[in-house]
Amino acid sequence: MRVGLLFGSFNPIHVGHLILANYMATNTTLDTVWLVVSPQNPFKPSNSLLHEFDRLHMVRLAIADNADLGVTDIEFRMPKPSYTIDTLTYLKEKYPTYQFVLIMGEDNLATFHKWKNYEQILEEYEILVYPRPGSAAIPLALKDHPKITLVPAPLLDISATFIRKCLKEGKSTRYLLPEAVQDYIQAKKLYL
């Protein structure tokens, strides 16, 4: 089974994440896409993150009706901050018959050389790259790499930062968030 892994803080999960994950699951050679909820990204400050269990619950609510998508809290049981190579290695050991494929935004390729053991990732894993607004040109060393495939997924410029700002200011997030996620945020008074 070919499993695409879409890592993220999902703070909160929004329609941009869902459209991308669904597109990858249904328009590529992947059998499914798992959303990997990261408790702490090594490149982002953790003080702005909602508790990881709230973020995980919102992802579960968001994908509940989509059999092509799954969610994993695998990084909750790993040292923090989470490094992609460590998660990939752990998943490979836990599911030896699965083929894991990394899904990343084009913007991440510019700093990919800063990732822990990025050479090992390139050597052992296929990477599906989706377009991101305003991304720098793909580094030449990666542009024609045999393990990297550019996927013409829909380009959506929606950010969790913008959504959190709207929520804090009492502005509408209708159509930006799945209804179940919006209801959960309102019920728990999150991001205020």
From TrEMBL:
<protein>
    <recommendedName>
        <fullName>Probable nicotinate-nucleotide adenylyltransferase</fullName>
        <ecNumber>2.7.7.18</ecNumber>
    </recommendedName>
</protein>
<dbReference type="GO" id="GO:0004515">
    <property type="term" value="F:nicotinate-nucleotide adenylyltransferase activity"/>
</dbReference>
<keyword id="KW-0548">Nucleotidyltransferase</keyword>
<keyword id="KW-0662">Pyridine nucleotide biosynthesis</keyword>
<dbReference type="InterPro" id="IPR005248">
    <property type="entry name" value="NadD/NMNAT"/>
</dbReference>
<comment type="pathway">
    <text>Cofactor biosynthesis; NAD(+) biosynthesis; deamido-NAD(+) from nicotinate D-ribonucleotide: step 1/1.</text>
</comment>
<keyword id="KW-0808">Transferase</keyword>
<keyword id="KW-0520">NAD</keyword>
<dbReference type="InterPro" id="IPR004821">
    <property type="entry name" value="Cyt_trans-like"/>
</dbReference>
<comment type="function">
    <text>Catalyzes the reversible adenylation of nicotinate mononucleotide (NaMN) to nicotinic acid adenine dinucleotide (NaAD).</text>
</comment>
<keyword id="KW-0067">ATP-binding</keyword>
<feature type="domain" description="Cytidyltransferase-like">
    <location>
        <begin position="6"/>
        <end position="165"/>
    </location>
</feature>
<dbReference type="GO" id="GO:0009435">
    <property type="term" value="P:NAD+ biosynthetic process"/>
</dbReference>
<dbReference type="Pfam" id="PF01467">
    <property type="entry name" value="CTP_transf_like"/>
</dbReference>
<dbReference type="GO" id="GO:0005524">
    <property type="term" value="F:ATP binding"/>
</dbReference>
<dbReference type="InterPro" id="IPR014729">
    <property type="entry name" value="Rossmann-like_a/b/a_fold"/>
</dbReference>
<keyword id="KW-0547">Nucleotide-binding</keyword>
<comment type="similarity">
    <text>Belongs to the NadD family.</text>
</comment>
